[in-house]
Amino acid sequence: MRINKSENKLNFKSLSMLSKPLGMFYNTNATIPTLIIESGVTTGRTHEANKKGGKIEASERLVEQGTSAVIWIYGVQMLQKLGEAIGKKCLKTNDFNFDIGFDYLRNPLENLNKTMLKFKTANLLVSTAIATLFIGFGLPKINHFITKKMMKKEKENNQNKKPKKIITLQEFKNKAKNISFTANIYQFANLLENNSAARLLITDTGVVGGRYYNARNKYEKKECLFRDVSSIYFYLFATQHTVKLLNKVTSNTDIDPKVLDATVEMLKANLQKSNLTDAHNFLNKATGSAKLKDLRLIDTMFKDKKIITLDEFKEAFSGYDLKADLMSKLQPLLGGKRVLTKTQATDILKNGWVNNPKFLHSVMEKATNGAYKEKNRYVSAKKVERIRESINEFILQVQRKAEKKNCAIDSNFVENIAKNNIRKSFAFYAIGTAISIYALGFLIPKIQYMIRRKLTNDDEFVGTKDYK
User: Fold this and answer.
1) Which domain-ending residue is among 349, 377, 400?
2) Which of 14, 74, 157, 300 is exposed most, by the fewest CB atoms within 10 A?
3) Domain-terminating residue out of 304, 323, 349
4) Looking at residue 13, what is its pLDDT?
5) What is the residue range of 121's domain?
6) How does DSSP classify residue 334?
């Protein structure tokens, strides 16, 4: 089943102007959310460093944070592309357009050339290692060298009784732009390629060790260790935890706007054909039901398995062949066979609007940009399950809102709930991002400088103590 892309965009825009920017937070490989956080962190840490340690410490924070951000966000991909360019010449191929992740539902590896698979995996690991080593070991050396030069120049100016001159932040920023920075191994490499948060965590692990090792004295070691370790939570988890908490408090649904768009279109189409008005009937029609004995049989079939073959399902249940065939095509062949998850098998037995395979195909098409049906692409089973769960959660949200307001459910009601959901979700992600920026850019530095004062009894930049 192929979805028209222009049609996709039209429907998507019609739901809310916030849908597209909100969608970035649901894309694990999106760089803009990380870039927003890093911009705020670089600004905050440079400002706080200038207040406490002066312009020299501010310069170090600007170079360290700004350069690290660029490498965290773009460095691995740039090195990967360079490696692929070499690989194309060596292996005489132009096709590195495949994923190397796998799980119990999808396994693109069985369709790949082993030599190209090994090369791409090695390329990703080496690219990450180079970026990590540069941030953890190369960048501190560069920073220390620049600081020494700045302090030497300041000392010479003082000896010659010339007006004291320290490079300004803007001048240093302009100069910094000229610094060039040129349970499975496949799952690990897939994370590096397709998950910006994982790249950040993995490079951070090496960076913490590198910065600690290269710190110039015991005071700087303690500061680096506190700052970098305490930062990991706010980089990787704080925003999501904030959003989860706010969604729970407000009974909002955490749903990808692309999935929400497809769900709203489906509900509107079915509501226009139906005479439903009350919340109870809406829920029954939308989510459907199945015989208790059939559900028990499903539980038995999946007792020790995460998937079954299509043939196993057909042998156990008759009269569902066409629907089962369509449902099994929500993922490519696995080991040459069509398979089903427990959720998919249950959906076949139910007759609700959300259990329609054609609708689920349209959802997956939008949510994965068509990757769900490609044999060389990897969409995790966890993501598939989360997409399906979020649809039911939104159906329940609509039903609860209608019960609370004691009103009928029609197309306008559903669309208004969806738009309000998007507005809230966008606000929650903005709040979560703001909390992360504040903690990383201002709160952690303030605590860091409190530790400094307790250890040294002054606010002087500890990194330059040995130079004096």
Assistant:
1) 349
2) 300
3) 349
4) 45
5) 29-244+430-464
6) B
